[in-house]
Design brief:
Elements: H1 2-19, H2 40-51, E1 59-66, H3 68-71, H4 74-85, E2 112-116, E3 120-123, E4 142-146, E5 152-169, E6 175-178, E7 181-184, E8 186-187, E9 193-208, E10 217-225, E11 230-237, H5 245-249, H6 253-260, E12 264-268, H7 283-300, E13 305-309, E14 315-318, E15 321-324, H8 328-342, E16 345-347, H9 349-353, H10 358-364, H11 377-395
Parallel strand pairs: 1-11, 1-12, 12-13, 13-16
Antiparallel strand pairs: 2-5, 3-4, 4-10, 5-9, 5-10, 6-7, 6-9, 8-9, 14-15
Helix pairs in contact: 1-11, 4-11, 7-8
């Protein structure tokens, strides 16, 4: 196993290093998953994943959840690309997405959105008080609302789908146009909103709320589906998200967790919980908040496995300037304790970077932005390569 891990890490990291020089303090050899307790649930997940190669009708789901590191999309898209590009697992669709341009915020552009009309966006982590109504946030943690009678949006996906759930609050069913077909949605018995089935697979649609004066349409997510099985890599991230964002501000979270039914959750929350002076950070509170989330997932799938990504070394805002965030080691310890408690794994990003102060070196190497909090596109791609190598080594 050690030899296989080393081979996979070398093969994937050598490709990444060819395009960018690793910072001198980076420790890619530390990229392997750590199991402070039992690894039974992870081994069971690895077995289910391997079996989906032989049983293409089965669905195995990896769910990556976090804050801005995930909403930016470069990290999760790199993971998805790595799983898809090697062709070892059948593709079971993209899972939940959101048309972020409607909310006037960033995303990775791995799918295309065309927005028409006036829309107002809001995040569960920082609600917009100008919204005409308080959105019933769900698993995406974001919403876009319009009262514009001309509003519409287009969606183009790289992977075709034959069913589309439109998760929304609307006075009447929206109309979906696909090619020459104009289809009316019907009430969704699975999720809050509407659903449409297509006569054949499609990769692009246009959604028209067709509002009348005084009506509003609030969108909180889209779920394109295919009828085939395989591996799904779903990512949901909200800029500024904390561990309490989904448990306290997303009333539709539990309902929308059902179609996910995750087999493996990659937890990337904690950077915003710890963006405070050391005296104000309480690791026990972080663990309590995590337990609430974890228990919701286990209620949906008691056999779910977990990977905890420690916080990266980072800086935080203090007034109008940024200072080093000294809470990295405390978050790291809390993650190891949670992993031991739930039989999960730890991917020690804090250690991989080089520990305290390493954010500056990564910035100087072009892998972090000047804020020394977020990574560059190249940095996120490197993280996606390293985490994928660590996971795949354990799967095999």
């Amino acid at each position: 196993m050690r030899r296989l891990t080393a081979i996979l890490l070398f093969a994937i990291l050598s490709v990444a290093a060819a395009a960018q020089e690793l910072p001198p303090c980076a420790c890619p050899d530390s990229s392997a998953l750590r199991f402070p307790g039992t690894r039974d649930s992870f081994d069971a997940f690895a077995s289910r994943l391997r079996s989906c190669r032989e049983r293409p009708d089965s669905i195995v789901t990896i769910w990556h959840v976090g804050g801005s590191h995930v909403q930016a999309g470069w990290f999760s898209s790199r993971m998805r690309h790595n799983f898809d590009s090697l062709g070892m697992y059948p593709h079971a669709g993209r899972g939940y997405i959101f048309p972020y341009p409607l909310a006037h915020t960033n995303y990775d552009r791995s799918y295309s959105i065309g927005a028409e009309g006036e829309w107002t966006g809001s995040r569960s982590s920082n609600p917009n008080r100008k919204m005409p109504v308080t959105p019933a946030y769900g698993i995406m943690g974001i919403a876009a609302c319009t009262t514009d009678t001309t509003a519409a949006f287009g969606l183009r996906m790289a992977v075709p789908f034959n069913r589309l759930h439109i998760i929304c609050e609307a006075p009447t069913a929206p109309v979906v146009i696909s090619g020459a077909d104009t289809l009316s949605c019907v009430a969704d018995t699975l999720l809050h909103g509407y659903v449409v089935d297509f006569h054949e697979e499609t990769d692009s649609v246009r959604v028209e709320p067709r509002l009348h004066d005084g009506e509003f349409f609030t969108l909180t997510g889209l779920l394109p589906e295919v009828d085939s099985g395989g591996l799904r890599y779903i990512s949901t991230g909200v800029n500024g998200a904390r561990t309490t964002t989904w448990t306290e501000r997303c009333p539709e979270f539990v309902r929308e967790l059902g179609p996910v039914h995750p087999d493996l959750v990659i937890w990337g929350l904690g950077i915003n919980d710890a963006a405070c002076p050391g005296k104000d950070f309480n690791p026990e509170r972080l663990k309590r908040n995590y337990r609430r989330l974890i228990d919701m997932v286990l209620a949906e799938n008691p056999e779910c496995a977990f990977v905890f990504i420690t916080n990266n070394d980072s800086w935080r805002w203090r007034g109008r300037r940024m200072v080093h965030n000294d809470n990295g080691p405390a978050v790291r310890q809390a993650m190891y304790e949670l992993a031991a408690e739930y039989g999960g794994a730890v991917w020690d990003l804090f250690g991989i970077m080089g520990g305290d102060g390493s954010a500056t070196v990564w910035r100087d190497a072009g892998l972090m932005k000047n804020d020394r909090l977020h990574f560059t596109k190249e940095g996120y791609h490197l993280l996606g390569d390293m985490l994928y190598a660590a996971l795949e080594a354990e799967f095999e």
